Amino acid sequence: MPSVRPVAASPAVRPGADDGAGRVDTVYRPGGPVDVVATLRPLSRGSGDPAHRVVGSDVWLALRTPEGPASVLLRPVGDTVAISAWGDGAPWAVAHGPDLVGRGDDWDDLDVSAHAFLAQARHRQPGLRLLRTNTVVAMLVPAIMEQKVTSRQAWRAWRYLVQRFGTPAPGPAPEGMVVPPDADTWARIPSWEWHKAGIEPGRSATVMRVVQVAPALERTLTLGRGGELVASRLQSIPGVGPWTAAETAQRAHGDPDSPSVGDYHVPALVGWALTGGPVDDDGMLELLEPWRGHRERVVRLIAGSGFRKPTFGPRMTIQDHRGH
Questions:
Q1: Which end of the chain is more exposed for a tag (fewer CB within 10 A), N or C?
Q2: Which residue intervals make up region (Disordered) (predicted)?
């Protein structure tokens, strides 16, 4: 059975790092393999994300917790994951750290043995897990930024706003890491800064509506690992549709059954991987139906397998409205 064991210290910090006051450590024993880098990959908003850094097999996160900012280091050590955190939010981050690497995520009932591609993908990724951050607004805001634009545009906006309005990551986090703003800070960002970031008024207005009801959104975590009720609560906010709700629930709640309907890439990826040809959203849901309850797990297996769908035609044009 998975277990969490508090320890006085761990060797997870780079030599010479400042282990100042506020450091908290634990060791999580998952009871099976965990690929820390692959499991936490959905939290990365591009290679220049100031809140996410991969160093070898270690992952650093700059988190905004309910108790304040925290730097978190997750490091695989044998059959355990060493978790260290610094900052005001360190105790909360360590208490919930095992959720980041799959505590409570049960793959036992997922049977992909009848599909050769998925069976091989699962065999090659025994350490893949679904993460759960337990922070709804922190996952919802960047998902809103990614609505109806390319990843490159969204990630550029994320970098600009986090670096401009976030706070330096505490402790010995790698240079340049920044903790994203809290709900109150997002609410105070002036309109011209959203414009500089390339976020048009529609998306910034959705963020404003989200942060105004932040406490109610965080309470959806008590509803479990997602599902229709969580989706409906998230979508009750104008501007938050099925895609944004799914992207949020996958990360904040650890929802195993919320494939991203409406995504520009995911349906085609699933179609090519499972049938050798592209499908639309309805086709994707039909293909995933045999694994209802695990549909996001199947999508993650495909995405992590290294499979790439064929590319045809020109790439989407990236529009920059910041100077207008």
A1: N
A2: 1-25
